[in-house]
Amino acid sequence: MKKSLKVDPVKCVACRLCELACVFGREKVYNPKMARIKVHMVGIPELPAPVFTRLCDTCGGNPRCVAICPVNAITYEEDNPRPDQKTIPDHEAVVHSWLSQVMPPKPGNAGTEQ
Ligand code: SF4
Ligand code: SF4
C-alpha cells in the first residue's frame, strides 16, 4: 500500500532538526531556507506547525526528517484509505488541526459561526 508523510503538530517541539536534516541531506549545506519542510510558528503564544513544501519527494521513500525527529512528530505511514484525506497536508489543514486541538471553542460559541 502507498505510504505518505503525516505530521502531528501537537508533538512538535520546534527544534527544527527536520529542516536541517532535509536540506543537508540534499544540498550538503545547513541552510533551512532551502529545506522542503518548514516549521512555521502560529498563534499566540506561538506554537510550531511543521509543513511540507510541494518539493518534498519523501526522500525516495526513506524520509530523513522522520528519522531525525526526536519526538516522532513526523511519521511515514501507509495511506488512510479515506479518499478525502490528502497525501501531504497543506499549511491550512495543519494549522486548522492544530487550532482545533489547542483552542477549545469559547463558552457560548460552541457550534456557531461568526
Ligand atoms: S517536526 Fe520534529 S524535528 Fe521537526 S521541529 Fe518538530 S520536533 Fe523538531
Ligand atoms: S521527506 Fe525528505 S524531502 Fe521531504 S521534507 Fe522530509 S527530509 Fe525533506
Which SSEs are present, and which pair or pack?
Layout lengths: L2 E5 L9 H11 L9 E6 L4 E6 L11 H5 L5 E5 L12 H12 L12
Bound molecules: iron/sulfur cluster (SF4) (2 copies).
Brief sketch in words of this structure:
With 114 residues, the chain is of the alpha+beta class. It is 25% helix and 19% strand.
Task: Walk me through this protein's architecture.
With 114 residues, the protein is α+β, with helices and mostly antiparallel strands. The chain has a domain at 3-78: Alpha-Beta Plaits (2-Layer Sandwich). The protein is 25% helix and 19% strand. The chain has three helices and four strands. The protein has helices spanning 17-27, 64-68, 91-102, and strands at 3-7, 37-42, 47-52, 74-78. The chain has a two-stranded antiparallel ribbon. It has a two-stranded antiparallel sheet with strand order 2-3. Strand 2 (37-42) and strand 3 form a beta hairpin. It is globular. It starts with a strand and ends in a 12-residue tail after the last helix. The model is unreliable at 110-114 (pLDDT under 50). One iron/sulfur cluster is lined by residues 21-22, 36-37, 52, 56-59, 63-65.
Lateral arrangement of strands in the main beta sheet = 1-4
Mean of residue pLDDT? Answer: 84
* Chemical compounds bound to the protein: iron/sulfur cluster
CATH class of the domain at 3-78: Alpha Beta
Question: How is the CATH topology of the domain at 3-78 named?
Answer: Alpha-Beta Plaits
* SSE string: EHEEHEH
Helix proportion range: 10-25%
Structural class, by secondary structure, is alpha+beta
Total helical elements: 3
- The N- and C-terminal alpha carbons lie at a distance of 42 Å
Give the number of DSSP strands. Answer: 4
